[in-house]
């Protein structure tokens, strides 16, 4: 019996996660970021997991790029609570979660414990022999963010963090290469690696302040606008590549990553904004109050900012005088093009969040009136 593309995708989407489980890289929460980075580079992996109370937390290469100091900074400052799947979940749900949260992998759990992971790479591998003749342009990200040869590697890193991407083409009229998050992470760990990059280039005083061409992959994986999705899947698998640059002649038209491919399989999942809160008070009542207030704030922001991608909250106990505790709260908001940071402090958590919501409401109202 011959299946059309839709039937093929539905059939794959109904497969069980248990057929795709791989070993997960589980770490101790006390490990340093630099040690994790070294482990990821050595094993050629993208992310690790660890348990934080009852929550499963993840750190990936792009998260590590945002660290101020990979040698001294604490894990919790960059870690994120991650969605999970179980063995009997289907691939469609896993693909939907990874697409929504911009992840390359998900931990597979049983009775609250991590028993493995499922990756975009393994899913794309399973699609290799599917005859999806739709044009690759259907799933590509058009007009990808790019840089020039002499743009700093630091610029590439900041663009990756801001736009939550892992691949940036280098373009000088035509494609010259590509820089990935792995390329940048690979030079953050030791001074020896930096010496190799600096050799033959102009001296710079701070890490990553050298032209991105110094670490770029010149032999980038490319495909044509005329290629089918089936051809691109085969190319990704045969090249063991996480991306393909789509070109028309010498001009870049778009980029396709594993995550773009699995969107073909993804089930619609609840479109909640990923939100994270760290530094919750020890007092259970104060902790629940903070979580409730922060969730209310995020829902308000989502209504006002439809393009809201992520919200983070950090609570810090700044002082204690007798029974009075003073807190400092910082909320960070991420959209595709901007990031915002708001801080406030006081002894009453509810009041702090209410004041912050009122301040944000005024700022956003003024912004909308200007437009």
What would your notes on this structure say?
The protein has twelve helices and 16 strands. With 371 residues, it is an alpha+beta fold. It folds into three domains: 122 residues, CBS-domain (Roll); 127 residues, CBS-domain (Roll); 96 residues, 2-Layer Sandwich (Double Stranded RNA Binding Domain), CATH 3.30.160.100. The strands form five sheets. The protein has a four-stranded mixed sheet with strand order 7-12-11-10. Strands 13-14-15-16 form a four-stranded mixed sheet, covered by helices on one side. The longest helix has 22 residues. The termini are far apart. About 4% of the residues have low confidence.
| Rounded radius of gyration (Å) | 22 Å
Q: How does CATH name the architecture of the largest domain?
A: Roll
Number of strands: 16
The averaged pLDDT comes out at 84
- Secondary structure: helix percent: 25-40%
Strand proportion, as a percent range, falls in: 25-35%
CATH topology of the largest domain: CBS-domain
Uncertain runs:
191-205
Order of helices and strands: HHEEHEEHEEHEHEEHHEHEEHEHEEEH
Number of helices: 12
Shape: globular
- The CATH class name of the largest domain reads Alpha Beta
Largest β-sheet summary: 4 strands, mixed
The tally of structural domains comes to 3
Q: End-to-end distance, in Å? A: 56 Å
CATH superfamily of the largest domain: CBS-domain
Largest beta sheet: strand ordering: 7-12-11-10
- Which class do the helix and strand fractions yield? alpha+beta
């Amino acid at each position: 019996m011959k299946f059309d593309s839709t039937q093929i995708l539905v059939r794959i989407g109904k497969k069980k996660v248990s057929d795709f489980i791989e070993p997960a890289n589980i770490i101790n929460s006390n490990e340093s970021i630099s040690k994790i980075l070294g482990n990821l580079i050595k094993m050629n992996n993208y992310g690790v997991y660890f348990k934080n109370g009852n929550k499963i937390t993840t750190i990936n290469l792009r998260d590590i790029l945002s660290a101020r100091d990979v040698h001294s900074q604490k894990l919790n400052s960059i870690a994120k609570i991650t969605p999970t799947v179980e063995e009997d979940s289907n691939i469609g749900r896993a693909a939907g979660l990874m697409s929504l949260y911009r992840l390359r992998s998900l931990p597979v759990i049983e009775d609250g414990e991590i028993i493995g992971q499922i990756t975009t790479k393994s899913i794309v591998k399973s699609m290799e022999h599917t005859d999806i003749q739709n044009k690759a342009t259907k799933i590509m990200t058009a007009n990808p963010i790019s840089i020039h040869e002499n743009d700093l590697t630091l610029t590439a890193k900041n663009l990756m963090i801001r736009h939550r991407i892992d691949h940036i083409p280098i373009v000088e009229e035509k494609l010259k290469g590509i820089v990935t998050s792995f390329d940048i992470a690979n030079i953050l760990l030791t001074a020896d690696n930096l010496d190799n990059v600096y050799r033959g280039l102009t001296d710079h005083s701070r890490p990553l302040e050298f032209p991105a061409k110094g670490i770029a992959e010149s032999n980038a994986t490319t495909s044509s606008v005329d290629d089918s999705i089936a051809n691109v899947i085969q190319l990704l698998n045969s090249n063991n590549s996480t991306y393909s640059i789509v070109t028309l002649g010498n001009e870049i038209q778009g980029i396709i990553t594993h995550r773009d491919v699995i969107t073909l399989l993804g089930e619609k999942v609840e479109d909640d904004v990923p939100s994270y809160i760290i530094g919750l008070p020890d007092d259970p009542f104060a902790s629940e109050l903070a979580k409730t207030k922060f969730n209310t704030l995020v829902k308000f922001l989502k209504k006002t900012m439809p393009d809201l991608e992520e919200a983070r909250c950090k609570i810090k106990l700044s002082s204690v005088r007798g029974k009075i505790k003073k807190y400092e709260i910082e909320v960070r908001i991420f959209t595709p093009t901007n990031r915002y940071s708001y801080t406030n402090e006081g002894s009453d958590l509810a009041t702090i969040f209410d004041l912050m919501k009122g301040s944000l409401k005024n700022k956003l109202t003024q912004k909308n009136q200007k437009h």
